[in-house]
Amino acid sequence: MENGEIPENANEHCPGPQSETAGKSDSCAGCPNQEVCATAPKGPDPDLVAIAERMSTVKHKILVLSGKGGVGKSTFSAQLSFALAGMDHQVGLMDIDICGPSMPKMLGLEGHEIHQSNLGWSPVYVEENLGVMSIGFMLPNSDDAVVWRGPRKNALIKQFLKDVDWGEIDYLVVDAPPGTSDEHISIVQYLQATGIDGAIIVTTPQEVSLIM
Amino acid sequence: MENGDIPENANEHCPGPQSESAGKSDSCAGCPNQEACATAPKGPDPDLVAIAERMSTVKHKILILSGKGGVGKSTFSAQLSFALAGMDHQVGLMDIDICGPSMPKMLGLEGSEIHQSNLGWSPVYVADNLGVMSIGFMLPNSDEAVVWRGPRKNALIKQFLKDVYWRDIDYLVVDAPPGTSDEHISIVQYLQATGIDGAIIVTTPQEVSLIDVRKEVSFCKKVGVPVLGVVENMSGLSQPLADVKFMEIGSSVDVTQKVISCLRENAPELLNVLACSEVFDSSGGGAERMCREMGVPFLGKVPLDPQLCKAAEQGKSCFEGGNKCSVSAPALKSIIQKVLASMKDEESN
């Protein structure tokens, strides 16, 4: 996608938000994205290179998703990570539920903090072979709400991917929030080049859960 | 806020994103928002005027929030709407869970479509006095995912507020998705001028749920939305012993018939007891204790009632007819009466 994905609300004949003429061509007139395209930087995202480097030491990546909330996705992610670590694999668990991070509680790591080294951010280790990264470790007060719009959440997810020193791991389990929005689009976009093994979707038997 | 809310990631001495010098002043250099501020249009949002007009025929607005997903927020929103309509109020129910809209199913309106008139978009009516708006009515195929980033979701929420013809209604119930992100920030921003009566926060007794509820209460305090109270849902499972299934440990063989016959023969009075299980450990004090600590009203507990789950799946009211939920309906009724009483007190103050 040389000139970037055409946004759904773009005009016909959109040159692509990454193109040289983005926001400036005739077909851009009146498009809701015109100003953003005209001013945004062009070309491939340099952060993707950094992400690819970090992910080169990760053998497998698994996303844990659900349409609906409260079906036990985080419980499953935590128990999956425990199981994989119990089989002597090297495991990383990344919590991208920015507004409702459950991983610190579920891994018994409440109150822990992230440390930085010259290699990057260090995950919090439950055991030698199971490291966890979550915004939950970065909140000064666990009652603090994380009231962020999409772009800020995306920026943090990007940091989790390019700044965290996961080391050589066999599995990176990614616990997502429920739904199909910013966090989900972003994690797929950022990991597209390096590949995602697949997604496990958690549900409950209720009809309302299966619709999702 | 004349020059707009200062974003959290802005530089010190940020002039404000709505200011004339936004993005252009010296203090803007290096700020992540600099380009956006320099190019974005200034001044108040004209859509807010349109929203204010639409909301002028709405007497009360209630947000239903939760920190965590799956706690029964949408079920509560639906049953609250049924209850208010049952008391002969005019009710509107707005579903702003764009990625996971539950309202069509929970009100028995799957397959219905939105119609437009010269007055605007028409909600879908369950009853004369209960109209519903949801993106669920706009999807050609219910299996389709709504894979939208924040700005597009915000735009639709804005449309729900400025283009929907709600008519004169007493209550607008807004069912939000879990969390504290775009949808929540937007609904509060768009309704700030016209006022929100308050928010009801739904939770379960689990610690993992209460952690998120505390965040939700913090959110409400931060944005100035009064907390009408917290509801503790799924507060223990209760059902008649005669309705319970029994299985052998290990082999999972169903032995219900055997157990029930044995009870009938030897202790028939036991068939009239209620079997209760806590399900979620609330030894930490549950939502009641959390409310005391955070200084917000505790509205009550609703048990995990299989009859209520069934009513929700069928899109029916739990208060009337054949779907009357003997265990949960009284609890819900009492909670709703508390909410109405506290809103009335506020009005007279």
3D architecture notes:
The complex is a heterodimer of chains A (212) and B (349). Chain A is globular, with a radius of gyration of 19 Å. In chain A, a hairpin with a 2-residue loop joins strand 5 (124-127) and strand 6 (130-134). With 212 residues, chain A is of the alpha/beta class. Chain A has 2 domains: 1-43, no CATH class; 47-210, Rossmann fold (3-Layer(aba) Sandwich). Helices cover 29% and strands 18% of the residues of chain A. The mean pLDDT of chain B is 88. The longest helix of chain B has 21 residues, at 328-348. In chain B, helix 7 runs parallel beside helix 9 (286-294). Chain B has helices spanning 34-39, 47-55, 73-86, 103-106, 150-162, 182-191, 207-223, 256-266, 286-294, 306-314, 328-348, and strands at residues 58-65, 91-95, 115-117, 120-122, 124-127, 130-133, 169-175, 198-203, 227-232, 237-240, 274-277, 298-301. Chain A: This is Cytosolic Fe-S cluster assembly factor NBP35. Chain A: InterPro entries: Mrp-like_CS, Mrp/NBP35_ATP-bd, P-loop_NTPase, YlxH/NBP35. Chain A: Pfam families: ParA.
Give descriptors for this structure:
heterodimer, A: 212 residues, alpha/beta, Rossmann fold, six-stranded mixed sheet, two-stranded antiparallel sheet, 7 helices, 18% strand, globular, B: 349 residues, eight-stranded mixed sheet, 35% helix
Question: Nutshell version of this structure?
Answer:
By secondary structure, chain A is α/β, with parallel strands linked by helices. Chain A is built from seven helices and eight strands. Chain A folds into two domains: 1-43, no CATH class; 47-210, P-loop containing nucleotide triphosphate hydrolases (Rossmann fold), CATH 3.40.50.
